[in-house]
């Protein structure tokens, strides 16, 4: 259940902006950990990003297509697709290697840039009330973030699971 009153597009923006801050806080901490703790923290980051991006694609980017511009929405999805590729590469490597650390730092930077683009280019221009469907998607996303019902071990599988479950609410 949503802890935030979710009635308008701006309520959704506030919710997602708070998640952006959580991601910005959590991502760098992964590199402070070792071995299993690092892998577990990386899994938490991947889960959070998979559900967050699926929710954005099924709500914000759809709204942005009509309220902002189709090009802006497409650019944000393209950034998310690039992050998915980077995460897939990281998943296949050793989380304790120097290569992982360098690639992970680049991913962190890209994720922060992406969040800032969304906040600047899309979020501020969204208006109006949310549909019951959009509110239901936020509630489902919160359940998935908590680990209830999200399928898969890889980012790609977690994203696909979240995306499909959110799509079923349409």
What is the quaternary state of this protein? single chain
The overall average pLDDT, rounded, is: 91
Structural class: mainly alpha
**Whole-number tally of structural domains:** 1
Largest sheet: none
Strand content: under 5%
Order of secondary-structure elements: HHHHHHH
Our count of helices gives 7
Distance linking N and C termini: 18 Å
Q: Rounded to an integer, what's the Rg over CA atoms?
A: 16 Å
Morphology call:
globular
Number of strands: 0
Helix content: over 70%
The residue ranges in which pLDDT falls below 50 over 5 or more consecutive positions are none
Name the features.
170 residues, 7 helices, 75% helix, 0% strand, Hemerythrin-like domain-containing protein
Write structural notes for this entry.
This protein is mostly helical. It has one domain. The protein contains seven helices and no strands. Helix 1 packs antiparallel against helix 2. The longest helix has 25 residues. InterPro entries: Hemerythrin-like.
């Amino acid at each position: 259940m949503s802890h935030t009153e979710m009635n308008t597009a701006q309520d959704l923006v506030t919710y997602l902006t708070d998640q952006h801050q959580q991601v910005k806080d959590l991502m760098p901490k992964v590199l402070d950990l070792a071995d299993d703790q690092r892998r577990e923290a990386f899994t938490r980051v991947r889960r959070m990003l998979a559900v967050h991006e699926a929710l954005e694609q099924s709500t914000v980017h759809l709204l942005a297509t009509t309220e902002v511009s189709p090009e802006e929405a497409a650019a944000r999805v393209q950034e998310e697709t690039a992050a998915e590729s980077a995460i897939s590469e990281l998943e296949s490597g050793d989380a304790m290697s120097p290569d992982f650390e360098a690639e992970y730092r680049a991913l962190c930077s890209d994720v922060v840039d992406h969040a800032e683009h969304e906040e600047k280019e899309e979020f501020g221009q969204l208006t109006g009330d949310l549909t019951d469907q959009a509110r239901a998607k936020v509630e489902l996303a919160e359940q998935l973030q908590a680990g209830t019902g999200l399928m898969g071990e890889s980012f790609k599988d977690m994203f696909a699971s979240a995306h499909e479950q959110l799509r079923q609410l349409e």
